[in-house]
Amino acid sequence: MTSPTEARNPRTRQIDRLSTTEILRLINDEDLHVPTAVTAVLDRLAIAVDLAAEALRGGGRVHYFGAGSSGRIGFMDAAELRPTFSAPDGWFCAHQAGGPEALLRAVEAAEDDAAAGEAEARECVRRGDVAVGLSASGRTPYVLGALRGAQAEGGHTVMVTANPNPAGDVADVFVGVDTGPEVIAGSTRMKAATAQKLVLNAFSTAVMIRLGRVYSNLMVSLVATNAKLRNRMVSILMEATGLGRRECEAALVAADGEVKTALVSLLGNAEIAESRRALRSSHDRVRDALAQLSAAPEAHAS
Fold first, then answer.
1. Model confidence at 298, in pLDDT bands (50, 70, 90)?
2. Is 218 a domain residue?
3. In total, how many domains does the chain have?
4. 54 is catalytic
5. Same domain flag for 63 and 194
6. Which of 114, 163, 165, 171 could staple 145 via S-S, CB 3.0–4.6 A?
7. 30, 111, 118, 182: which one is catalytic?
8. What is the dihedral of CA 275, 276, 278, 282, to 10 degrees?
9. In sequence order, which residues have a C-beta less than 8 Å from that of residue 78 and are 6 or more positions away?
């Protein structure tokens, strides 16, 4: 059975006869269907989020296995988690069919190598880890092989695809986003890839939230790798506390650049050492640390 992503889209059959603006409008109209399709799979995605959060709490890892555009999106998502959430190295591991070379140029035959996917998963996935397969069609041999390998090693498996019709029992959690036929038949770098970007962004962000790496909607686990991000740290403290720049800068310096420690110190009216202890004993969750200090001002909690 052909994947829906390979079918011809009846709405775009005359796209080559349109003006430039009309082409762009038609592409945009098709893109508008993607968020609605993602909405339909949120309950299943929530299961995957909870599995991943549990795995990371227990010392495990999350693996992305993909090919082509799907794999590249997995690499991008994993790479952005350290600067945004201070995710430790190894928490999210991305694997691409064909290896690093395939990130820059297509290595099409690599996606057909189911044995390579299975071998790679069996080498790196451990019991309790979560392996996320990324495949527009839901049938990419490398990805299916990786999920089989992960299951053999005792890992939990998730399939993220633009094909809502699974080819058998491919994963513990099946997230099939029904994006329908592409604007250009088979060009899954378009709607299917957009759906996978939305799903992975939501997935990894929700995991980070569940692990306490966000306070309210602020990036309090931010890693300052440049001047812009160092300035953002101070802005986050100002926003969360309602205090002035000078006081927030001083707290950040006293906390050796640790935003969470500075935040707990300011909101909890506590010494830096006491704030660190509260964070350690509350699994690095700001709200729980503040509750321990019995000093979480309601005015700054939202």
1. very low
2. no
3. 2
4. no
5. yes
6. 114
7. 111
8. 140
9. 64, 92, 93, 94, 204
Could you give the CA distance from residue 54 to residue 70 in angstroms, rounded to a whole number?
25
Which residues are CB-contacts of 85 (< 8 A; sequence separation ≥ 6)? Answer: 208, 213, 214, 219, 221, 222
Task: Return the structure tokens found at 270.
Answer: 């506590």
* CA separation for the pair 117, 229 (Å, rounded): 37
Same domain, 126 and 43: yes
CB atoms within 10 A of CB 145: 24
Higher pLDDT, 223 or 247: 247
Q: How far is CA 277 from CA 118, 132, 186, 241, 261, in A?
A: 43, 35, 54, 20, 9
Among 54, 80, 153, 239, which one carries the catalytic annotation? 80
Domain of 254: which CATH number?
1.10.8.1080
Task: Single out the residue in 210, 239, 264 at which a domain terminates.
Answer: 210
- Specify whether 22 is catalytic: no
203 & 260 share domain: no
Q: Is the pLDDT of residue 272 over 90?
A: yes
pTM over 0.85: yes
Are 164 and 4 spatial neighbours (Cβ–Cβ below 8 Å)? yes
Instruction: Give me the half-sphere count of Cα atoms (radius 13 Å) on the Cβ side of residue 30.
Output: 25
